[in-house]
Amino acid sequence: MPKILRILNRLNVGGPTYNVAYLSKYLDSNYETKILAGYKEPDEGSSEYILKDLGLSHNYVPDMYRSISPFKDYRAYRFIKKFVKNYKPAIVHTHAAKAGVLGRLAAYHNPNRPKAIIHTYHGNVFDGYFSPLKTKVFLAIERYLCGLSTAIVAISEAQKNDLVNKYRIVEANKVRVIKLGFDLSRFAEDPSVKRMAFRNFYCLGDDVVVISITGRLAPIKNHALLIEAIKIIKQANAQLKFKLFVVGDGELMPQIITTVEQAGLTSCRYGDANYDADVVFTSWRKDIDVINAGSDIIALTSLNEGTPVSIIEGMASRKAVICTNVGGVKDVVEDGHNGFLCDVDAQTYARKLEELIVNKPLRNDMAKNGQEFALENYSYKRLVSETEDLYRYLLE
Predict the structure, then answer these.
(1) Can you tell me the distance from the alpha carbon of 322 to that of 331, in angstroms, rounded to the nearest whole number?
(2) How large is the average pLDDT for residues 11-32?
């Protein structure tokens, strides 16, 4: 029975945890899988429940955190190396940046080196995260690590193009495109019941258009763009009935609340009950299917993005979406068909967002097209099948 060791950056809310969970749960029973994971940051939502709900266990890697710390990172590397030596996996499969660095090094420089070392890029840190100098350093490191890897998994064609042609960190014949997969069934179930529950709780009338954005309150997510766009719309058309729900938390929470106030908008913080505010902060929520059901438009304003999980979930919920045209977003959103793509520009974003607010038939058409696309293309069953094909190929 081939053993798989799956190593994940950290158990925070997002696509990587779902990817690891579904692969570990539903992979062919001929494989044995163990999961190692780092620790989430204090202001991040925990995704440990995703593993527990599927009956999966995991081991934490001591000292493996998102932030860079030579001392802690070395201790984490030593732990992973010892784990690989004792477990003797046939495949080590790492997911996301920190796990990809420490896991690949520990696997390759190991007396029990596995037959295959695979890394999945769930995004990249080459745009919008660091200074040009730091970015060059990270590119050099990734080129070295890709040389140690047996195969690289990109989660979209756009990401493969970036890795191969834009950043030149890996040759094309080493890269396999395997899109993320999810259990999207709950997003399509009982939409009317969930919508009523959400709307009743927040005292929302049927004529109020709800825009929601889900994700970490971090610089890369660029919430300020959405707030500026809403300010522009309200100044031009004060009679429109709409509001924004910000789902998530993070280090920028105080700054984003200040941005809302400076834009002349009112806000409702988590724990308050002034739901008539222009912007409502919900903190982290597990019931995203209920949030989406109660919403009318799902937004994304990122400066960089791998595969936009919140947008796929929004589409599966039969909602119109509007996104900045960055990273792998264009692999999910076809502009004008199942959503809107925008430049990272508040005026352009505001114009298209207002069109969605006022044009309900357009929203409905995009929502229908989006749901069909999401359910057809992002099933966890396809994810598992394509990953099994890759494993068999590498082991044979």
Answers:
(1) 14
(2) 90
In order of 76, 311, 329, the CA distances from 36 in angstroms are 11, 28, 29
DSSP code string of 317-385: TT-EEEEE--GGGGGT--BTTTBEEE-S-HHHHHHHHHHHHH-HHHHHHHHHHHHHHHHHH-BHHHHHH
Pick the closest to residue 202 from 285, 140, 133, 124 (CA basis).
285
Tell me which residue of 136, 123, 71, 64 sits closest to 97, measured CA to CA. Answer: 123
Distance of CA 81 to the CA centre of its chain: 28
**Residue 151 to residue 91: CA distance in whole angstroms:** 11
**Does position 14 have pLDDT exceeding 80, yes or no?**
no
Q: Which CATH class is domain 185-377?
A: alpha beta
Q: What is the pLDDT of residues 156-198, one digit of tens each?
A: 888 899 999 999 999 999 999 999 999 999 999 999 999 999 9
Q: Is 151 helix (H, G, I), strand (E, B) or coil?
A: strand
Instruction: Give the per-residue pLDDT at 126.
Output: 63
**Phi, psi (degrees; rounded to nearest 5) at 372:** -60, -45
Q: In the prediction, which pLDDT does 125 show?
A: 62
Q: Is the dihedral of CA 102, 164, 323, 197 positive or negative?
A: negative
Helix (H, G, I), strand (E, B) or coil at 106: helix
Element at 87 (helix H, strand E): helix 70-87
From the CB of residue 123, how many other CB atoms can be counted at a distance below 10 Å? 23
Pick 3-181+379-395's CATH classification: 3.90.1300.10, 3.50.50.60, 1.10.510.10, 3.40.50.2000.
3.40.50.2000
Dihedral sign, CA of 65, 69, 71, 77?
Answer: positive
pTM recorded for the entire structure: 0.82
Q: What percent of the chain has pLDDT over 90?
A: 83
Amino acid at 33: T
Query: Measured on CA atoms in the order 55, 56, 62, 64, is the torsion positive or negative?
Result: negative
pLDDT value for 129: 58
> Cβ neighbours of residue 235 under 8 Å, at least 6 residues apart?
none
Spatial strand order of the sheet with 209-214 comes to: 267-268, 279-283, 242-247, 209-214, 297-300, 320-324, 340-342
Backbone dihedral region for residue 332 (phi beyond 0: left; psi -120 to 50: alpha; all else: beta): alpha
Structural domain boundaries in the chain: 3-181+379-395, 185-377
95-126 per-position pLDDT tens digit: 998 999 999 999 999 999 999 999 999 876 66
